[in-house]
Amino acid sequence: MKLPDEFSALHDRMTGWRRDLHAHPELGFEETRTAARVAELLESFGIEVHRGVGRTGVVGVLRAGSSERSIGLRADMDALPIAEANGFDHRSRHPGRMHACGHDGHTAMLLGAAQLLAQTRRFDGTVNFIFQPAEEGLGGARAMIDDGLFRRFPCWTIFGMHNRPGLPVGHFAVRSGAMMAGGAFFDIRVTGKGTHGARPEAGIDPVIVAAHIATALQTIVARNVAPLETAVLSITRIAAGDAYNVIPQTATLGGTVRAFSGAVMAQIDAAIRRVAAGVAAGLGASAEVDFRTLFAPTVNDPAEADFAAGVCAALVGADRVERNPPLIMASEDFSFMLEQVPGCYLNIGNGAGEGACEVHNPRYDFNDAALPLGAAFFVGAVQAKLVR
Ligand code: NI
């Protein structure tokens, strides 16, 4: 594997940007320094910059030639509320905050691609560089979409990537179709009728109703979801009552759902409402359900996944592109962008073997050796999609 020389020239610069971002991590929707740095660099490359898209998001627009075709390239910028345990020079300067998921690396790779594409302009069409805030469960992708991302910056297709510890540097993993789970949280509030603990006949016991609902909800994955689908429904909290001799007025249950298709998520949402309301009504109580989808399932368009795998294979060889990696139960909010625009999310190797620290660990660090590969993927995708 030998990348074109232009990427080795970029490597030092990307490493510098990456380590500066690593030293100054910012949480979701607080990425003001990061966004300012990204905007300033994009402008210095001669790219048109739009600040404040989805609060702290930044979009760079680069045009070449006259084609109407367009491509979106997305990186996330936020850090996590973790105290860094590393001692190297570029360790976090912000107590209790850390780039423990490699979003510093994702941002630096996309900046590198932006600089190279702005210098060379070997494409015909429009490239939208999307620097997204708040990926870590705070709704940054939705914020950008709600702020008109794809209306203001139309994209015919979109690509994003995440580093993967355990996958060697120089390798990529690309899956067609479902790749990462969607995730939802739910709360159920059961209302009965409070009474004395010794006089149940005078009230309606919400505790026993909650217990029946908890049991009945376990039939949804077992009996309603098709056996070949994958889903999890966990009740993770139940609360009711304050005293030994009082049957309370209300009880609450809460939990989480994970699934790999929007249809299954919607099926489970509807089933939770039906079961909770039905069980409660049967026992004389009522139940209110609040179901909140935090992440849609990440589903890659098959044609775009093939395209992305081809770009990777051209860079590193087909034997270093894993085409059928296992499904990932974690979630990713690029999923909401993939619901709007066909595209593909892929994994880039962050290193295997000893020292391949998992993301969200206080000793994690993005592997700078992966930077030119990530940038080369983005550049390759643009040149192949917007071919002159
Ligand atoms: Ni991440």
Structure commentary:
It is elongated and about 80 Å long. The mean pLDDT is 96. It folds into two domains: 5-179 and 297-385, Aminopeptidase (3-Layer(aba) Sandwich), CATH 3.40.630.10; 182-295, Alpha-Beta Plaits, CATH 3.30.70.360. It has ten helices and 16 strands. The chain has an eight-stranded mixed β-sheet with strand order 1-2-4-3-5-16-6-15, sandwiched between helices. A four-stranded antiparallel β-sheet has the order 10-12-8-13, covered by helices on one side. α1 packs across α10, α6 packs antiparallel against α7 and α8 (302-316) packs across α10 (371-385). The protein has 388 residues and is of the alpha/beta class. It has helices at 5-23, 32-44, 103-120, 140-146, 149-152, 206-224, 262-282, 302-316, 334-340, 371-385, and strands spanning 48-53, 57-64, 70-76, 125-132, 157-164, 172-173, 177-180, 182-191, 195-196, 231-240, 246-247, 250-259, 286-295, 298-300, 321-322, 343-349. The longest helix is centred in the last third of the chain and has 21 residues, at 262-282. The site of nickel (II) ion has 4 residues, from loops.
Beta fraction: 25-35%
Quickly count the domains: 2
Question: What is the average per-residue confidence, as pLDDT, rounded to a whole number?
Answer: 96
Largest beta-sheet characterization: 8 strands, mixed
> Numbering strands along the chain, what is their spatial order in the largest sheet?
1-2-4-3-5-16-6-15
